[in-house]
Design brief:
This protein is α/β, with parallel strands linked by helices. It has helices at 15-30, 59-67, 85-96, 102-111, 120-126, 142-151, and strands spanning 2-10, 34-39, 115-119, 138-140, 152-157. This is DsrE/DsrF/DrsH-like family protein.
Length: 158
C-alpha cells in the first residue's frame, strides 16, 4: 500500500457529487499523489463528449443514450434539481464566487496527470462507445480498478 496513491470510483452523474470527486482528486494530485478515477455506470455520463457521436449502435443503445445526460453541462444536482433550474443556479453561484467549473476541473485533472478510467463492462451495458468519450480517457475493467485500489492508501466511492 502506498500512502501517496488514491483511487476514486465515480458512480454518480450528479453534478455536486462529481464536483466533490474532482475537488478531492485534483487536491490530492496537487499535493503530489498519484490519483486514478474509475468511472462506472452513471458516472460514465461525465466522460461523454457532447460533440461526439458513435456509429453502429443498436436501437436500444441509442434510446438509452438519449435518456442519459451527455457530458458535464447536462448533469443534474442530487438535491433541488427543480427540472434543471438547480444546476443553472449552482453554476451561476460558482461563477459569482470564482469557483472552478466542472469542465475546467476535468481539464485541470488531466493536466495534473490524473488517470481517468472508463469501466468497460458498464460501457457495454449502457451502450457507450469509446469514440463518444472525451480525449485522454482509458478503458478498463474491474481488474484495472482493483489493481489500482490494492496499491492505494485511500479508496473513495462517490
Amino acid at each position: 500500500m502506498r500512502e501517496d496513491k488514491k483511487t476514486i470510483i465515480v458512480f454518480s452523474n450528479e453534478m455536486d457529487k462529481v464536483m466533490a470527486a474532482f475537488v478531492i482528486a485534483t487536491g490530492a494530485a496537487a499535493m503530489g499523489d498519484e490519483v486514478t478515477m474509475f468511472f462506472t455506470f452513471w458516472g460514465l455520463n461525465v466522460l461523454r463528449d457532447a460533440k461526439k457521436k458513435a456509429q453502429g449502435k443498436s436501437f436500444l443503445e441509442k434510446m438509452f443514450g438519449a435518456m442519459m445526460p451527455k457530458g458535464v453541462e447536462k448533469l443534474p444536482l442530487s438535491k433541488m434539481n427543480f427540472l434543471g433550474i438547480g444546476p443553472k443556479l449552482m453554476k451561476y453561484m460558482m461563477r459569482k464566487k470564482n469557483v472552478m467549473m466542472l469542465p475546467e476541473m476535468i481539464k485541470q485533472a488531466q493536466e495534473l496527470g490524473i488517470k481517468m478510467v472508463a469501466c468497460s463492462m458498464s460501457m457495454d451495458v449502457m451502450g457507450i462507445k469509446k469514440e463518444e468519450l472525451i480525449d485522454g480517457v482509458e478503458i478498463g475493467g474491474v481488474a484495472t480498478y482493483l489493481g489500482e485500489a490494492g496499491e492505494a492508501g485511500v479508496n473513495l466511492f462517490i
